[in-house]
Amino acid sequence: MAKTIAICNQKGGVGKTTTTLNLGVGLARQGKRVLLVDADPQSDLTASLGWNGDTLEKSLGKLMYLATQEYRPAVRDTIIHHPEGVDLIPSSLDLSSMETQLVNAMSREKVLSNILKDVKKDYDLFFTIFL
């Protein structure tokens, strides 16, 4: 069962992305199975790992949208494997529109944890970065 570590701060430029990336890769190099979840619409973590979130077909925002529409999204199809040994659920700008979607969603505080429930047994740690 994965443990979740959230890196969050409303202020920009405080090292959220750098901390998440370095901890994730460092622990992966020690043999831990690590999933990084980019929950920041600016998608800096996604970009730091070499992907442009706005050009990807699947992202955290799309997973969350499907989950709020009573669909069971295919989380494993969204996970990207990086050569550094970490996996990533990427972000894109569409995540910023989820705030208005979540206002009316049932159990909105559980949407992200429900999405990750299917892959919890596949990892030792989840690192989630929030704006």
Question: What would your notes on this structure say?
Answer:
This protein has a five-stranded mixed sheet. The longest helix has 14 residues, at 16-29. The mean pLDDT is 91. 34% of the residues lie in helices and 18% in strands. It has a single domain (3-130), classed as Rossmann fold (3-Layer(aba) Sandwich). It is an alpha/beta fold and 131 residues long.
Descriptors:
about 130 residues; alpha/beta; Rossmann fold; 5-stranded mixed β-sheet; 5 strands; globular
Strand segment count: 5
Could you report the average pLDDT, rounded to the nearest whole number? 91
Rounded radius of gyration (Å)? 14 Å
Order of helices and strands: EHEHHHEEHHE
Structural class: alpha/beta
Number of domains: 1
- The helix tally amounts to 6
CATH homologous superfamily assignment: P-loop containing nucleotide triphosphate hydrolases
Largest sheet: 5 strands, mixed
CATH architecture: 3-Layer(aba) Sandwich
Strand content: 15-25%
Helix content: 25-40%
Strand order of the largest sheet: 1-5-2-4-3
Contiguous uncertain segments of 5+ residues:
none
CATH class: Alpha Beta
- At the fold tier of CATH, the topology name is Rossmann fold
Distance between the termini: 25 Å
| Principal-axis shape | globular
Give a summary of the structure in a few sentences.
With 131 residues, this protein is an alpha/beta fold. The protein has 6 helices and 5 strands. It has a 5-stranded mixed beta sheet with strand order 1-5-2-4-3.
Blueprint of the fold:
Layout: E1 3-8, H1 16-29, E2 34-39, H2 44-48, H3 60-68, H4 75-78, E3 80-81, E4 86-89, H5 98-103, H6 111-116, E5 125-130
Parallel strand pairs: 1-5, 2-4, 2-5
Antiparallel strand pairs: 3-4
